[in-house]
Amino acid sequence: MQQIFNFIIRNSNRLLFLLLLGISLALTIQSHSFHRSRVISSANFLSGGVYERINHVNEYLNLRTENDELVLENARLKSLLFNKEDTTKIPLADSIKGVKPADIIVSKVIHNSYNTHENYITLNSGRNDGVKQDMGVINSLGIIGVVDNTSPRYSTVVSILNMKSQINAKIKKSNHFGSLTWDGKSTGFVQLVDVPRLASIKKGDTIVTGGQSVIFPEGINVGTIDKIYIQDKTSFYVINVKLFNDMTNLGHVYIIKSKDREEVINLEKKGKDE
Amino acid sequence: MNSALLVNIFRFIVFLAIQVVIFNNMNFLGYISPFPYILFIILYPVNSNRSSLIFSSFLLGLTMDMFCNSGGIHATACVILAYYRPYIFKFSFGLSYEYQTIKLNDSLTPERFSFILVSVVLHHIILFVLLAFQFRFIVDVLLRTLFSSIFTIIISIIIIYLIKPNRR
User: Fold this and answer.
1) What CATH architecture does domain A38-259 belong to?
2) Contact state of B72 with A25 under an 8 Å Cβ cutoff
3) Nearest residue of B to residue A120, measured between CA atoms
4) Contact at 8 Å (CB) between A162 and A146?
5) H-helix or E-strand containing B110?
6) Domains and CATH numbers, chain B
């Protein structure tokens, strides 16, 4: 017994080091391996508050570009409004084109990272505003990511510039599906993989979100085809997609609260149970 | 004793604050970002309690991880740097050097420079390896380590000169 105590006292530094190293390595590996529910995230009172303060200053400096974007979006919405043929016959539609019955939560990016392989965005609305895990996040130009962690007032988002992110997307004109991933190289481009070679595609075609995922409604803009590669071993295309969004410069965003989501998930669960 | 503790707490908060507010937003050429917050570990009093250094470095790294959404990579790199700090001291100042007489925030000698260099490179290589976590990014990791280390060292030396106590 004496010897054990002596050993612990003599090696207290090393034991402390090994303990803390173990904890931090476990946190690292956990954050790399599991897609969801990381232990340490910036969706909390301290870092969320700090980022909100910093964002107040930055926002003031970017008022001009923000205004320009709002004017553009206003113009787009106005044109949609004026081009409607008969206002009495419209089925219940929401503010964004192509959205099925869904609610929109307006939120603001208070912190945005884009210089690592796994990027996250922090938003200034959380559980109190109705944000839940796995909700889609878009802005006026296109998709941004999927909600990851939430706290009462803040939430983190897995950006599409994250190698762990996989979002269902399709080619607008031909309905061929693929999944949207990122190779970690350029912030302006993402990759659409697993598109069958049967699909007739050419440079400049538009990519939109597909209807297979319950996170995003169908038909939200992603980007245009920039380059097309053919995988030798398989019969699939790898498409380089140029994003409509500038992911390094994000302001106001919309969180999509899909009403069908729970119904679809319950239905699929039922199918698996039986 | 008490004043040293207060100075350390003050440094902890100040280095963390400037890192989060200023240097985390500095994406030079898209991927080069300096991490001068590790000056807290580098400038920690030389002859003080070693386990308190390791533990406070862990807290420092964990807080950085919280702000960067990065799991535990900063914590790992900081803990390793804190644990190997005495060995780096021996490496750059030599065995015969008395620990008590080393003052880092003084004029820059080759020994002090080599100490900062080795510490920064050790921290950054662990950080970027864990950040990428895949072998196919090895070139990317090395490039990031190289450029970010250069950037961090320059900024660290500027900060050391700025906070140097002015005796003359």
Assistant:
1) Beta Barrel (2.40)
2) yes
3) B69
4) no
5) helix B110-132
6) 2-163 (1.10.1760)
